[in-house]
Amino acid sequence: MDDFHKTRRLPPYVFEQVNRLKAKARAAGADIIDMGMGNPDLPTPKHIVEKLVETVQNPRTHRYSASKGIPGLRKAQAGYYERRFGVKLNPDTQVVATLGSKEGFANMAQAITAPGDVVLVPNPSYPIHAFGFLMAGGSLRSIPATPGPELFEALERAVVHSIPKPIAIILCFPANPTASVADLDFYRDVVAFARKHQIYVLSDLAYSEIYFGDVPPPSILQVEGADDIAVEFTSLSKTFSMPGWRMGFAVGNERLIAALARVKSYLDYGAFTPIQVAAATALNGSDECIRETREIYKKRRDVLIDAFGRAGWDIPAPEASMFAWAPIPEQFKHLGSLEFSKLLIEKADVAVAPGIGFGEHGEGFVRIGLVENEQRIRQAARGIRKFFDEAGCNSKKLSKSGA
């Protein structure tokens, strides 16, 4: 496999090492509490499932579907944007249904990237944000993953020193993995910068509805002129607990949306039609199930921060997303995030995601998913406390070779 050009460009998949250890422990009978993958455990709301079941009874829905999404689904997504953000979209020219936001990003990269094109990617970041462009032949330049002056300083340097000039900026707020949030003023500055330098912006808004404060996360498309340069990706995976349904969207700039739609037309026929119909039902329905889901994640977040804190692990409370970005406790920092994650499986029966898997600047952290119920989170905290207590003064003697 290493002989193929595109696979040679991909680094080793760090998470696979943790997954192998997790599988080995489970095979040996361990009860591993898995908080490593952002895989929602909540059931899809009943009315969405019922619409799927109803629609699948019609044999006509078993045929090939529409690659860019059936018209009713694209209209539903446009309606969601108008209600939620006050943004008006043309469902025919500014909306494409994707097989989750991950596929949307990967195919957008294929659509717009020429060999050697420079793309500005947050570090740490969700892997597809970087590797989608690597596989498409692009070159990456890292920018900070949190909004602020340092990010804009990095953007300015990139424009001056990158040859060729960058073609796109990737953003993700609420952020995966760091749970950072951005406000509308930040997006205004980004749009002004991108328009000035004629650079596209690809915004990942997959966690738009998982927030814990009073102010919901904004869309970059709320900024005047954003649709000249921006496309935004959203997903039903977290909003409606539909991860396995693989349903997401790209919306915004007509030229980019047309390019994505054209690439997709060669690669797929879209999601199964009953899934698209059920997804439209989700978007057109009441927000009650979204509020209930948000409250569940908030309670889990509060339990996690409290219980892990009592166990001796102080973790900043995330303002949004379904993750906590946890600094490795001081006595274990020398191990690095991968070895520390392995230790948590071996000694505490808890699986997390090592920060190094999200980029070099993720080192020193692990990502903890709010994907277990409150009882299991407390159980995880007890296991971690026991591990910390046993390590005690000997924790500094732990080495990578011993881990």
First-residue to last-residue Cα separation: 30 Å
What is the H/E string?
Answer: HHEHHEHEHEHEHEEHEHHHEHEEEH
The portion of residues assigned to helices is 40-55%
Strand order of the largest sheet: 2-8-7-6-5-3-4
Number of helices: 14
Tell me, briefly, the overall form: globular
Major pleated sheet: 7 strands, mixed
User: Based on helices, strands and strand pairing, what is the structural class?
Assistant: alpha/beta
Average residue-wise pLDDT: 93
Beta percentage is 5-15%
Q: Rounded to an integer, what's the Rg over CA atoms?
A: 21 Å
Beta strands, count: 12
List segments where confidence is low: pLDDT < 50 over at least 5 consecutive residues: 393-397, 399-403
Fold blueprint:
Blueprint: H1 5-8, H2 14-27, E1 33-34, H3 46-56, H4 71-85, E2 95-98, H5 100-112, E3 118-122, H6 127-135, E4 139-143, H7 149-161, E5 168-172, H8 184-197, E6 200-204, E7 230-235, H9 236-239, E8 248-252, H10 254-267, H11 273-284, H12 288-310, E9 323-327, H13 337-348, E10 350-351, E11 353-354, E12 365-369, H14 374-391
Parallel strand pairs: 1-10, 3-4, 3-5, 5-6, 6-7
Antiparallel strand pairs: 2-8, 7-8, 9-12, 11-12
Helix pairs in contact: 2-13, 3-11, 4-11, 5-6, 5-10, 12-14
Structural summary, described in words:
This protein is α/β, with parallel strands linked by helices and 403 residues long. It is 44% helix and 13% strand. It contains 14 helices and 12 strands. It has helices at residues 5-8, 14-27, 46-56, 71-85, 100-112, 127-135, 149-161, 184-197, 236-239, 254-267, 273-284, 288-310, 337-348, 374-391; strands spanning 33-34, 95-98, 118-122, 139-143, 168-172, 200-204, 230-235, 248-252, 323-327, 350-351, 353-354, 365-369. The strands form 3 sheets. The chain has a 7-stranded mixed sheet with strand order 2-8-7-6-5-3-4, with helices on both faces. β5, α8 (184-197) and β6 form a beta-alpha-beta unit. α2 (14-27) packs parallel to α13 (337-348). Residues 393-397 and 399-403 have low confidence and may be disordered.
